[in-house]
Amino acid sequence: MARILILEDDTTFAQLLEGFLSKNMHEITLVTSVKQSFKLIENQEFDLLLLDYRLPDGIGVEVLAHSRNLGLSIPVIIMTSFNDVRTAVKSMQMGAFDYITKPVNPDELLMVIKNSLTKKESKNTEVKETDADFIKGKSAIADKLYEHIDLVAPTDMSVIIQGESGTGKEFAARTLHQQSKRAKRPFIAIDCGSLSKDLAASELFGHVKGAFTGALNDKKGQFEVADGGTLFLDEVGNLSYEVQIKLLRALQERVIQPLGSSKQIPVNVRIITATNDDLSNSMQQGAFREDLYHRLNEFKIQLPALRDRGGDLELFINHFIQLSNRDLERNVKSISSEAKSLLLNYDWPGNLRELSNVIKRMVLLTPGDVAQVTALPDEMMISVHQQIAPGGTSDLKAVNEQNEKTLIAETLIKVKHNKSKAAKMLNIDRKTLYAKMERYGIE
Ligand SMILES: Nc1ncnc2c1ncn2[C@@H]1O[C@H](COP(=O)(O)OP(=O)(O)OP(=O)(O)O)[C@@H](O)[C@H]1O
């Protein structure tokens, strides 16, 4: 059982969620505004925040940011319409655990909740390396990537891994560790995006009892825990200036000093960092220290976006189908050509993470052995058609049909699939709407 705060302004949907999750033994608190959520997380304890993305008085991500400022590391799941996926992807950079697209599929929701609660338990502890869930890809760009990884892994150089959200930066960091001389020592991953300023220093360097309000016991810092091994700092650009100074000192002098202590503890740690944005820009703007940047950037690895990986996309699709079949006890053997074309033409702003989520959902919604396009989010189709349409063809009829299809699909989403409302908005009668939906294969 988990204590879950749900922030959702659509009260009917919120009550549905509440009923469903209560039945699954969770304790639910419902709120409809960002302001109310602020108050609640300041005064009550929750195990999970389930936040709608768009709200009348703000966006769910503000609650995520507020929880981090309060020093809380509760997992956060953002609920979003597919049109907002790009923005939801950004919320992952701010420390959201995951996002789920509406309309929410109940089994998918339970799966994401379960994952986020178990991840919380194992957060920042030594990660068990399991290779079976990962593949490398066979494109030229993947070959180059692994050539670089193989080259730098055995050295003790500090590495910056740069890449869009969800491109597999943590996996790359773990591979570097596994191929290094430190492989038998700990690999510790720290998500700097989810740590407040105060927490970050104590998490990295530890503290002694009484060092600050709330420091009830001595706590070992992760530098000490990772001694002899590798420390992976994800979203390193989020560290405050003061913590950056402490980090630089730890790297230069190879000693750390827990908060509130005068003791110097020697440490031997290899640092791998990851960032979504170009740290050299943050450096030029003064948000990231130049000396630290150069100390961290002894070698840079650029992770390619999924859309740039050519034939790897298909390999990853098949790989994630196999994993989802195993995890969800399904038996999907192939995908219809329409579904495949959609998967191959979409631009995947959330990269491997988004692909893995979309495939998991597709497999979940496929009881038989062939996955159909109906198991993919409607909005993915809209997004692909919007990409392809401009300037793609000079066939006026095809363009008109495409526009009509997109408009119908978008309107249906807007009115939550209420056909009467959609027909009214489109200024056609219901019968015509049904006929067009059938013609265009819109569910
Ligand atoms: N080579 C791979 N093979 C299979 N799955 C992968 C691979 N690399 C990453 N993934 C999957 O993609 C998802 C995102 O990976 P990861 O967390 O490493 O990305 P990231 O770039 O660190 O993300 P973020 O920028 O949000 O921190 C995870 O679910 C991971 O399991």
The top level CATH class name of the largest domain: Alpha Beta
What is the distance, rounded to the nearest whole angstrom, between the alpha carbons of the first and last residues? 35 Å
Number of domains: 3
CATH architecture of the largest domain: 3-Layer(aba) Sandwich
Q: What would the CATH topology of the largest domain be?
A: Rossmann fold
- Chain oligomer state: single chain
Q: What is the radius of gyration? A: 24 Å
- The rough form would be described as globular
CATH homologous superfamily title of the largest domain: P-loop containing nucleotide triphosphate hydrolases
Domain Response regulatory: 3-117
GO biological process, one term: regulation of DNA-templated transcription
Protein name: Sigma-54-dependent Fis family transcriptional regulator
Keywords: ATP-binding, DNA-binding, Nucleotide-binding, Phosphoprotein, Transcription, Transcription regulation
Characterization of this structure:
With 443 residues, the protein is α/β, with parallel strands linked by helices. It has 3 domains: 3-122, Response regulator (Rossmann fold), CATH 3.40.50; 140-302, Rossmann fold (3-Layer(aba) Sandwich); 311-440, Helicase, Ruva Protein, domain 3. It has 19 helices and 18 strands. Helix 8 runs parallel beside helix 10. The longest helix is centred in the C-terminal third of the chain and has 19 residues, at 396-414. 38% of the residues are buried. Bound molecules: adenosine-5'-triphosphate (ATP).
